[in-house]
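By way of example, what follows is a protein record of this kind.
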Amino acid sequence: MYRGQKIAVVIPSYKVRNQILGVISSIGPEVTAIFVVDDCCPDHSGDFVTANVQDERVTVVRHEQNQGVGGAVMTGYQAAIDAGMDIIVKIDGDGQMDPSLIGNFVKPIIDGEADYTKGNRFYDLEEISAMPKIRLFGNAVLSFMTKISSGYWGLFDPTNGYTAIHRDVARHLPFRKISRRYFFETDMLFRLNTLRAVVEDIPMDAKYGDEESNLKISKIVGEFLAKHSRNFVKRIFYNYYLRDMSLASIEMPMGVLMVLFGTLFGGYHWIASWGSGTVTPVGTVMLSAMPIIIGIQLVLAFLAYDISSVPQRPIHPKYSRAPAKDI
């Protein structure tokens, strides 16, 4: 227990048999419970943990069918909630995430400053040189798409799976709707924004061992783009039309319509002039250009409003801010 709060750690377990014992042994005494979720692991990692770990905090939960990292985390969340835990930390079982940082992840939640925290390996520019270049580029692209779809414009490293969440926030997540596989971390951010939860990045070092990543950037960029587009449309509808309305609710559609009108109108007359060999009248050019210029300004105004409306007030109850103990 840390500062009066029961902390649980959820570890999805799939093909991490060689690293998981080291991860469990590195988890400090501030953690009350550890849930290892065997996601139908072909190496039977759940049985391996049961046979080799004597730590009474450890509970092994098994899936009969593989559900992906998202499914494993949701199962771990539910187990932690049922066990009465206050804060749930998720770390991977491959040894990339340092358990000694758990205190850094839970402190903003306990202090009432955040509802959800996640790791950011890009905070220290000197450290990211250890990251493979393809991952660095892929994370930059995915981070930009996540900012747009989730509405958390200040976050980076969206696929980072080192996270912590308050129980009262986790309970309100739509467990059955959250993406089960590689899109899980970014889909979580979208779901948290619909709850108006406060999310904070926690600096951490990039660390790579002898494990092999199952995530291939080239294979998931297309899928991620489609899902980000879907989440963006849903977020805009939820936040700007269903739950609230503001001037931004008008700026976005008006801006898009004006840009489309100017582009289509101008394109049509450009093709007609090119085909006939005549010069397009100045009035026609202006009638095309002005909607585009005004439309872009309206879209930029919407983006400025969206960036400024990132959730700032945590939705979980604030606990007494007792002096933190070193852990």
In short: Strands lie at 7-13, 33-38, 58-62, 87-90, 116-120, 163-166, 199-203.
